[in-house]
Amino acid sequence: MLRIGLLTSGGDCQALNATMRGIVKTIYRNAKEPVEVYGFEDGYQGLIYERFRLMDNRDFSGLLTVGGTILGTSRTPFKLLDTPESDGINKVEAMKHTYAKLKLDCLFMLGGNGSTKTANRLSEEGLNVIALPKTIDNDTWGTDLTFGFASSVEVATRCIDEIHTTANSHGRVFVIEIMGHKVGWIPLYAGVAGGADVILIPEIPYDMDNVCRVIEERDKAGSRFTIVVVAEGAISKEEAALSKKEYKKLVAARTSPSIAYDIAAEIDRRTGREIRVAIPGHTQRGGDPDAQDRIFATQCGVEAALGCLEGEFGFMVAQRKGKMCRVPLKEVAGKLKLVDPKSDLVREARALGISFGDE
Ligand code: F6P
Questions:
Q1: 226 a known binding residue?
Q2: SS3 label, residue 5
Q3: From the CB of 135, is ligand 1 less than 6 Å away?
Q4: How many whole angstroms separate alpha carbon 93 and alpha carbon 99?
Q5: What is the structure's pLDDT at 85?
Q6: DSSP assignments along 74-116, one per residue
Q7: Are strands 275-278 and 173-178 parallel, antiparallel or unpaired?
Q8: Low-confidence residues of the chain, pLDDT below 70?
Q9: Potential cystine with 301: which of 19, 147, 219, 335 (Cβ 3.0-4.6 Å)?
Q10: What per-residue string of b and e applies to 196-218 under the rule 16 or more CB within 10 Å gives b?
Q11: pTM exceeds 0.90
Q12: What is the pLDDT of residues 275-291, one digit of tens each?
């Protein structure tokens, strides 16, 4: 008997179900023995508290096109892993206990950065774990791509497209806030795809003088509107010079709902232009996976399952330069993949006249 466990952890994305379908279909089709599938509910919480469903391949049929996660998800912060829950439970011991009790041969964990650190810890504790790179943010180190990213770029791009027409009609400046606290992959890709005039991302600190200059120059050139795309975690040059502690204090002291409102207020104060804010928010994680995500999710699921059937564990499935590969969990855990300010796309965007607010 081959017993496998599945869980989805952290913020959801559009391609989680498609990935699980890829795993389970491949296991059933290629396993040389009967299979039992345990689906843990709400991420690591299900593993900690023994909340699971005994499932089979029929439960994963028809899921290729369905967003969200049929297992539910939750955040179990890695930094609190060794802090007992309010009921006193030791999370790591509880997870090991559930794994042993169900006699699992492998745990498939679909998650982002924090979740992969926990997966690595469980692997170090002796569990057979395989991680799959889920996140709309595309910030998982060790892989060129994560599933969820392509679909969220689609949603964010559609938002920018729709704002374009109304911005033009009214001759307004729009600040559009796109997800990405620590990295700017979605704002960069959606900004280029949607034809933004300014893109502000955490990796390239901005100066408001430069942002306002773009707006004024566009005005002078006869453009009726300006689209400023801002990442949730974009930072100014002054903020970038602060220590981590000072910056956290500054963010905590913010009274506006989010950064887009601060930027809009500053543009208003300096230019007097009519300005509006648009925030697609969690729609960027919602809806169904696009075609690219369905393909990549399927590839990840299949490769992870093949690894399990070959008896290889303790890795994350990845794609590098178009090739699927297996990266040891200990190499991935705790590292972020940032946008390289010198990358081709940034260089090309600049050549096209898109400003990153830094010059
Ligand atoms: O990690 C994915 C992500 O969507 C980030 O882009 C965003 O900043 C965050 O999650 C939002 O988290 P929550 O769903 O907990 O509000």
A1: no
A2: strand
A3: yes
A4: 10
A5: 83
A6: ----GGGTTSPPTT---HHHHHHHHHHHTT-SEEEEEE-HHHH
A7: parallel
A8: none
A9: 19
A10: bbbbbbbbbbbebebbbbbbeeb
A11: yes
A12: 999 999 999 999 999 99
